[in-house]
Amino acid sequence: MISDKVHPHHLARKALLYVRQSSAHQVLHNRESSALQYAMRDRLTALGWSEIEVIDDDLGRSAAGGMQRAGFERMVAEVCLGKVGAVCAREVSRFARNSRDWQQLIEMCRVVDTVLVDQETVYAPRQGNDRLLLGLKGSLNEYELDLLRQRSLSARYEKARRGELVVAAPVGFVKAGDRYEKDPDRRVQEAIALVFDKVEELGSARQALCWFHEHNLDLPVKQNNGDTTWRRPNYSAVHRMIENPVYGGAYAYGKTAVGAGYNAHGVSMKIRRKARSDWLALMPNAHEGYVSWERAEAIRTMVSSNVPTSRHHGAPKHGDALLAGLIRCNRCGCKLTLRYTGAKHGIPRYSCSRAWMDNGGPHCIGFGGLRVDDAIEEALLDVVGPGAVAAATAAAKEAGERRDQVREALGRDLEAARYAVDRAFRQYDATDPANRLVAGELEVRWNRALAHVAEVEGKIVAHDAATPAPAIDPASLGVLASNLRTVWSAPTTDARLKKRIVRTLIHEVVADIDDAASEIVLVVHWVGGVHSKMRLPKRRRGQRNSTCADIIEAVRRLVLIASDDLIAGLLNRNGLKTGNGNRWTRERVTSMRSNYRIPVFKPAEDGIEPWLNLVSAAKLLKIAPKTLRLAAEAGEIEAVHPLSDGPWIFARAALATSARSIAERARQNPRYPAGSHPDQQSLFPSTT
Hints:
Shape: elongated
Number of strands: 23
Strand order of the largest sheet: 2-1-3-4-5
Distance between the termini: 170 Å
């Protein structure tokens, strides 16, 4: 029956049949719905239209407004041109489920006098009642979609709160119903466990990544189709494993949220991470993990602390400064910044410059780091000294385990490569040789697998050929540990290892400067709640690392009898250093003399030296050097002894006044006679 709302001018124009389904799953499985929509052509024919065009470009596209619909846009464009007498759909909700598209369609149909047709009735937008009804239906369609979405999300969230919603399994896991299970591939399991071991050992995700790159080890990656492949690892892959609680045996859901973002290209959806307290579900010990939950949390916290913020110390770096990221200003509470100065940029300096960087304010404090690091190092070695033997033994054991880890990983790679070769050979062997198109491709795959086996075997040979670490005797470890300070100060000791030890024992150091006493005040907060206070002398402005006054005075005395070469040897023999901590050389002695205006040693032109050493003075007095030394130590003769392990210096004038008394007493000593008496008879007759 023809409706009274359909007029001849409507029938003179064509009719558009709009067919749409919301998803590809509905297109493939909801075939009856598609058939009913295409059957609306018969209704249009019954209403009197002979020219009917079907628009089904939007199959598999939602009408909620989140995606572009080419079919709907083409339909609206033809309506605007006045070429369409009716637009038809099985239900009007097929046109749009958002107010923007729906109101646009209704307004265009009202302007050009186009009717809307569904399975129930015909709507004329120029009539007020029909326009009101269409507006209500559009609002109900939009609300219905929101209601269905809310119901679906509520059911989904409730299942997630029970820990039964498993959407996708990360690499290393497979879905087993409503729970996670480990991947049955042992190579995948041990590779993921190795990631956690190396991050915990090296202290950061980046250092673990560099270790994998150094040894040319690959990590498993799950593709979009669910298959696992092996690739060269990158930082994001390692960091995702550390941050994902699934690897610690916990079920987690609701870790991210989707929000709308705006840029030059329009609206874009952005994914942001939520705080752990805002997660929908977090259930530890829900399934078997690669590490325990406690260990996974400790590793995650350590990696999170590597970010240099006000609350974290940052990852240990290659610089020599021990307190980088650990030291804080006592005046403003900000962390001190570190920079390296000197000709070789090797002298650390700590300064509080946060106020200057933020608003141009003055610097709080600043001081050199060498003296501070030495004091912290001394306190730290006193703490770790008693456990040095156990630490050295554990370090040797861990070194052996690290070597075994590389060898085992390469062995797993070789086993997997050989399996790939066997599989490629079986496929090639089962192929008809006459079918060269297939046999040729399988032969190429077989050769590629053989090349990969040769590559892995080459890696194993290179690893085994590397210089093995010598076996360490526990007794030698005890000797090494007893000399822990030497090991700590050795140039081969890694600065990052030192910093990790410092951060294990020290929570924070608060620094201040006592300007009146010119001292650096340090308060060390040890892990465990113990605090200790240190006061170190601060070098004043303009003060240099000058040579010790005792050394200068010793050189003033030594130049009376010794040249610069000899003086340098005497200073080194006594363990004395320059102001910069260097050994003495002839050039450095000469430079120091010139700086302090000390004259150089010159032999006397007439050969009569005004100053003599011990041997020369004893020869002059004709007594033993030991006798003269004992007299000098007793203060019986004036002499100078500038170095504990060095020469005695005597003035020739002082020897002339006291020479006779010392020589006479030496000859009259009954225990040490100076010579035989002239009246003494010999027991042996002369043979001459």
